[in-house]
Structures are given as C-alpha cells and as structure tokens.
C-alpha cells in the first residue's frame, strides 16, 4: 500500500496503472473508518485491480457551527485497516492543496441540495459535490463506491456524475449495522453509553415504518407521525427531519411507492445521526450486493 | 473528418486515439466559425495529433431575453471550414442529450461570475462553466484552446479547471481582428453597414487606453472616462461596461499594472459586442503565440 500526499505523484502512479489497463476503484472517505467503509473497500477490491481510498476531512462540507474540528482523525488505525483490506493507494491531501487561495469554483446540484439534510445543513452538499468532482478529476476511477447510509449524498453525487458526464460508474452499497440495528457512522464515537442505547431508535423507527408498509399502510404522513412518536419517547432525541421521498428527485411523497426513500436525521444529545431505508429493498439486508438505487 | 452526434461513439473513437498515445486538442465552439475560431483550431492541429471541435449553441448560457434563437447556425459552412483546417472529430450534440430532464447540476465560479459581463448577463458564466465541465468530461482532451476575445470566459474556465483539478492544460490565443481593428465575432453578422462602421469604436477605445498608458497615465478612472467619451460619440453605441481589472480575480483596479485587463462591452444598435486588451501584451499583435494570460 502506497501513501500519496500530492496530486502529481498519485497521478503518475495511477497513469502507470491505467497504461497497464488496470481497472481503478475509488472510495472517497473522511477517515475514521468503520465496517461500512471497509465493505466499500472490499467490494472495490473484488471488482478492480487497483483500489484507491482518499482520506480528507473536507472543510467545504462543514457549516461554521458544525463538528469539523472535533471530527475523529484516527489516521494510524485507518491506515492499518486499509492495509488489511486490500487498498493499493491512499490519497491524503491537505486543505491547502485542495482549496488553494484564491479558490472560487463550486458544484451545485440544484433542487436536491436544499431538501432533507440540505435544509438543516445549508452549503453541505455544495461542499460534498465540489470535493467529489475534484477527487474524480484527480483519481479518474472506473468505479466510485458510496454507502447507502448517506443516501442523499449518493443521490446527489450520482446525479452530478450523470449531469456533468463524468466517465465513471457509481455503486451504492448497503448500510452496515450493529447487531441491534444502529447504522455504523464515524459520529457514533461521540455518543455516551446512555446515548448509544437511545441511538438505536433511528433504525427502530425505520423498522416500524417498514412494518406499517408491510401491513398495508400507504399514507406517508401517517407513517412519519408514527416514526416521530416512537423517536420522541427517547428524552435525548430531537428530530431534525423524518421524510418519505422519491429516490430520484428527493421530493416528498404523499403515498408510499416501491423504491421510495425513508430518511431520518435525529440529534441524540449533541450528536446528529442519520439513517434510511429504501422501501422494498429488504429489511436491513446483510447481503453485500449493491442496493437497487435508481439513478436518472 | 468524422462527425459525432452521440457521446458514446465519440468516446469510443477518442479512447482508441488515447490508446495509441495520441495527444488530443479541443476547441469548444458555438459554431458560426470565423478566423478567430480557425486560429485556435490551427494551433490545436500544430500541437496535437487529434483535434476535436464541438459545435453546440449552449442554452444554459443565454438569458431569456438574449439571442439564443437568432444566433447564427451556418452548419454546412462550419463543417467545410473545419475540414479544411485539420479537424479530426466534430462533436455535434443536441440540447436534449446535453441537458436531459431532470437536469440539476451547475458549476459556479463564484466572484468571477458576477462582474463585467456577468453583471449584465446573470447566469451566463454559470452556463459557460457548466457546459465546459461537461465537454471536458466527454472529450477528456490534453489541451483546451480558448480565444482571448472572450477574456472573462477564459479566466473563468481556467480558474474552474484549476479549482476542480481537471487534467487539461489551457491555451488562450490572441484575438483576431479585421483590418480596421474590429474583433472578429459571430455576432458581427448582426450589424448593419452603418453599425459595422461604428463598431470599430471598441478597438479604437482600447487603442486610446493603450496610448494613454504608454504616455504615462496610470489612473484607471481617467482612462475609463476617456474611453467612454470616445465611444459616446457614436450615436448607435450604448456602453454596457468599461472596466480595468486584475486578470486573476477580475476585481477593478484603481491603478494600471502590467498584465491587467481592459475590457469593454458596448451595444451597437441591438448587437452587444465585447473586446479587450491585456496591458503590456503588445498592441493588437498579429502573432499567433498564446497570450501571456496568467492563471492562478
């Protein structure tokens, strides 16, 4: 496994691989790797000859009052996980080289940017789309691997790739969960013991929604209010949003339809967690198949 | 010369050229080609093994009240000019394939977008940056050729390429002029005989600015007011803007400095024309060397 800090050296190494007709799989991350990231990396290793992982805590996607500074950065552990998971190249750029001054260019995926997490984190997805556009130009992978846990992010990036004609395929892999259902997230590390127990309420609410749907409920507002009811029982929980939306345009749906997205953002104490399911995708399936996200 | 209407076929042809280690030069145009475009094409042919020209009247860069519909489209003549100038591949996409519905993604070069032409054509450079990002991803050229006549466009595209790490070099070639100094433009075709004569006042004003600078004038506002005075003598002329700006950030300068940009937009009758010079670049040089645009 080789570690690259500069674009130029990474490029030279990747160009050589490309000349040798090696397929390049790419997993962009902010580090603090967990089994969710590793499932993407392992899938990339199965499907490509060269696996590139970037670790970059992207300032452009954090709001001024968000957790940029305290975001976990266990680099040594991350590198050891990557080494054991079949990563070939690690890209570790710094903010100064990613956003040299003056810096002016941002990618906006209009419409999809402002809903769900975008409504409470203004500018967040502009930062995400921008850094992914940059990383795609630097790495030029054949396949990009994303996690379904960040469903809106995956929808936005897939739309950007389609709209701007980036020559790369996208694979969205299922969310990895703890045994009790909690979706893995680097931010779970912020939770106290009590909060960790309460945090399971997100996946419980999504399971409730699926049960209601299995039993014939099709009214989105009914399902949402039942989810909110459940979550509100936890005193540490404060709901940011609970939405049932079209997976293509992220617009709210009145009636459930196959393939729609049920998405939650809940603050447990001071920690903001998100989770989601795609209806008819199977209940928290443990299969490692790409999820049937439908892109435009 | 081969003509391509679809991304896929163009891509297949270009991939073959890339495998054969051919250098690809790219000239994006809106058609209605003149000697300005041809100077870019010929430079591309000198420096590359494969020259790609796109012809696409990009709806995203026209305002609702602008000349999108009447923009000249002499396709047959354009193709014959390309054929004679050493073009290998012509790319002729349609709006539907470039902006399929739903379409959401736009590239904003913030700050540079809103000044000069951006102040009177809101959204124009968002459309330009977006279509060029798309075309760069489709063609993936080694070198992109742009004309200095659209100086702000060149500055914005160069900044976008730098900011988003597009793996391409930019060459900005000098403006080509009629014998009396009028900068070549596809929009010159809109001018009546009288207007054509008046239109020379743009280049005359720029020459006046250069003469004032040669004689020691360094106050931007003095130079601008002398240019405006000269232009106002033409009854068909209405000034959109006359600016002296830093070539890197396009911010107005109080004092002339080497490499600064003097830019004009003037309506002659109903036709909006632009022109510019870079100070110390030589007076309307006829050399075909790339101009010394300085990018970040």
Structure characteristics:
homodimer; 296 residues; alpha/beta; Rossmann fold; Pantoate--beta-alanine Ligase, Chain: A,domain 2; 2 domains; six-stranded parallel β-sheet; three-stranded antiparallel β-sheet; 10 helices; 20% strand
Short note summarizing the structure:
By secondary structure, chain A is α/β, with parallel strands linked by helices. Chain A has helices at residues 7-19, 35-47, 75-84, 95-98, 117-120, 124-139, 151-163, 193-199, 201-214, 220-232, and strands spanning 2-4, 24-29, 50-55, 89-91, 105-109, 143-147, 169-173, 237-245, 261-268, 271-278.
Explain how this protein is built:
The structure is a homodimer of 296-residue chains. Chain A is an alpha/beta fold. Chain A has helices at 7-19, 35-47, 75-84, 95-98, 117-120, 124-139, 151-163, 193-199, 201-214, 220-232; strands at residues 2-4, 24-29, 50-55, 89-91, 105-109, 143-147, 169-173, 237-245, 261-268, 271-278. The first copy, chain A, has two domains: 2-173, HUPs (Rossmann fold, 3-Layer(aba) Sandwich), CATH 3.40.50; 186-285, 2-Layer Sandwich (Pantoate--beta-alanine Ligase, Chain: A,domain 2), CATH 3.30.1300. In chain A, a hairpin with a 2-residue loop joins β9 (261-268) and β10. In chain A, α9 (201-214) runs antiparallel to α10. Chain A is globular, with a radius of gyration of 19 Å. Chain A starts with a strand and ends in an 18-residue tail after the last strand. The A-B interface holds A 7, 11, 100, 102-112, 129-130, 133-134, 137-138, 140, 159-160, 163-167, 248-249, 296 and B 7, 11, 100, 102-112, 129-130, 133-134, 137-138, 140, 159-160, 162-167, 248-249, 296. β5 of chain A pairs antiparallel with β5 (105-109) of chain B.
């Amino acid at each position: 496994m080789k570690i690259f800090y500069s674009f130029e050296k990474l490029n030279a190494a990747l160009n050589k691989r490309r000349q040798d007709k090696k397929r390049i799989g790419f997993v962009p991350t902010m580090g603090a790797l967990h089994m969710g990231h590793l499932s993407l990396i392992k899938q990339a290793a199965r499907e490509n000859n060269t696996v590139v992982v970037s670790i970059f805590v992207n300032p452009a996607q954090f709001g001024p009052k968000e957790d940029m500074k305290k975001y976990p950065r266990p680099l040594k552990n991350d590198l050891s996980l990557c080494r054991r998971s079949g990563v070939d190249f690690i890209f570790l750029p710094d903010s100064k080289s990613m956003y040299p001054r003056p810096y002016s260019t941002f990618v906006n995926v209009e419409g999809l940017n402002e809903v769900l997490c975008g409504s409470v984190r203004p500018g967040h997805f502009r930062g995400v789309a921008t850094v992914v556009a940059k990383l795609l130009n630097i790495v030029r992978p054949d396949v990009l691997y994303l996690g379904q846990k960040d469903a809106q992010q995956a929808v936005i990036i897939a739309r950007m790739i389609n709209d701007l004609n980036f020559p790369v395929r996208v694979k969205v892999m299922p969310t990895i969960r703890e045994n009790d259902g909690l979706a893995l997230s680097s931010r779970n590390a912020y939770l106290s013991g009590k909060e960790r127990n309460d945090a399971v309420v997100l996946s419980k609410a999504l399971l409730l929604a699926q049960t209601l749907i299995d039993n014939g409920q099709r009214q989105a507002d009914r399902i949402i209010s039942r989810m909110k009811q459940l979550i509100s029982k936890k005193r540490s929980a404060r709901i940011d949003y609970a939405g049932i939306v079209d997976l293509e345009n992220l617009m709210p749906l009145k009636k459930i339809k196959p393939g729609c997205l049920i998405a939650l953002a809940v603050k447990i104490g001071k920690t903001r967690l998100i989770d989601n399911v795609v209806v008819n995708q199977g209940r928290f399936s443990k299969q490692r198949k790409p999820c049937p996200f439908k892109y435009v």
